[in-house]
Design goal:
With 363 residues, the chain is of the alpha+beta class. The chain contains 13 helices and seven strands. The strands form two sheets. A five-stranded mixed beta sheet has the order 3-5-4-6-7. Strands 1-2 form a two-stranded antiparallel ribbon.
């Protein structure tokens, strides 16, 4: 049963709440390297945050080094506010419904929910007991009443959650809480999709990162679904301390781009992460019909090493500390997230763009 699947995921202390006093009222829902100032650079006193052996550490250095952690905090703050806002909206929806019926909130719950909560049968309680028996060290008879009470409370919470969601869907809601945004530049030569698309995803990735490889299909799915509305810009962020071939792979993709085949080479690298050593890179170039000598010369000369480093520098300033990292119109998404997470944000951005266009037109 759905209820049993929920129960088996709960902590033991909740299963054994002696009085069953777990409230069925509304519940709160849960879900870098340093940038160095060039040698000899001068600082004003206000720019200096420390002096070590006569050498200053600037506020800029501090900001750059702390950027990934600060970005994480800003995003955590937004996630917390979003969850709490959702709880407040659901509470407001329940209050409005209760007022429309001339009831208090608790009277509304009693009318719509409490009388419909089934009493769990002994077989259901025993099935739950079997699932957590190894943690209890007690007989079924010793905990039967506690588990039965807890099952009923959990069923009540689940039914209230469903009811609150139903009421939330009945009222008009405008969400105005904005996620933190970061201005992130991109290279048009490494852009997939229509340059005029209203939504740009900037991806910082490492060719040797398995999680980056995992997101490739998601990015292609998004570009296909939102054709003309979403584009994707790629930027390098090789994690050389754990991925020894990532730096050269990034440079090789730039060398392929010099011959007009960046994305073909990019796709090839992610298709076979086991062949990112130099022989594998050269083989990929031959397979794609690139000029062998020109490619080998470009790779050997480290022609694009500085540009790769610039991507990393920009990523760190934006708060990137791991791969893959994405910025959807400047809103950060970290890790190999499900397609649905991107869709939710993309749909919001498209709606915002439509609303802004309509507002300008009506003036």
């Amino acid at each position: 049963m759905k209820r049993n699947r929920l129960l088996l995921s709960l902590p033991l202390w909740l299963a054994l709440s002696a009085s069953g006093a777990a409230s069925v009222a509304m519940a709160q829902s849960p879900d870098a390297q340093q940038c160095k100032t060039p040698s000899g650079a001068k600082h004003t006193p206000d720019d200096i945050v420390a002096i070590v052996a006569g050498k200053p550490i600037s506020a800029h250095e501090l900001d750059a080094a702390a950027a990934p952690q600060i970005m994480q905090l800003r995003n955590q703050e937004h996630q917390i506010k979003s969850r709490v806002l959702n709880d407040l909206i659901r509470r407001r929806a329940v209050e409005l419904e209760a007022r429309s019926q001339g009831l208090t909130v608790e009277q509304l719950y009693a009318k719509e929910i409490d009388g419909r909560i089934p009493n769990p049968g002994e077989a259901e309680v025993y099935a739950y007991y079997l699932g957590i028996r190894s943690q209890l060290n007690k007989s079924f008879q010793e905990v039967k009443v506690q588990l039965q009470t807890n099952l009923r409370n959990l069923e009540a919470k689940e039914m209230r959650d469903d009811y609150e969601g139903f009421l939330r869907g009945k009222i008009e809601i405008s969400l105005l809480l904005e996620a933190p945004r970061v201005q992130v530049a991109f290279d048009r030569e490494r852009l997939r999709g229509d340059i005029k698309a209203p939504v740009t995803i900037v991806e910082f990735a490492d060719y040797q990162c398995p999680f980056c490889q995992k997101t490739e299909s998601a990015m292609k799915e998004l570009l296909k679904k939102y054709r003309g509305q979403v584009n994707l810009a790629f930027r390098d962020f090789p994690l050389t301390s754990i991925h020894p071939n990532a730096q050269k792979a990034s440079e090789a993709a730039r060398c392929a781009g010099k011959q007009g085949k960046f994305w073909e080479f990019h796709d090839r690298l992610f298709a076979d992460e086991a062949r990112l050593d130099e022989p594998g890179l050269k083989e990929a170039a031959r397979t794609l019909g690139l000029d062998d000598k020109a490619f080998a010369s470009c790779l050997a000369s480290a022609e694009f090493a500085a540009q790769v480093a610039l991507d990393q520098e920009d990523g760190k300033k934006a708060g990137v500390g791991s791969t893959p990292s994405f910025f959807v119109n400047g809103v950060f998404i970290g890790g190999a997230q499900p397609v649905a997470e991107f869709e939710k944000l993309i749909d919001h951005e498209l709606k915002s763009a439509t609303d802004q266009t309509a507002a300008r037109t009506s003036r």
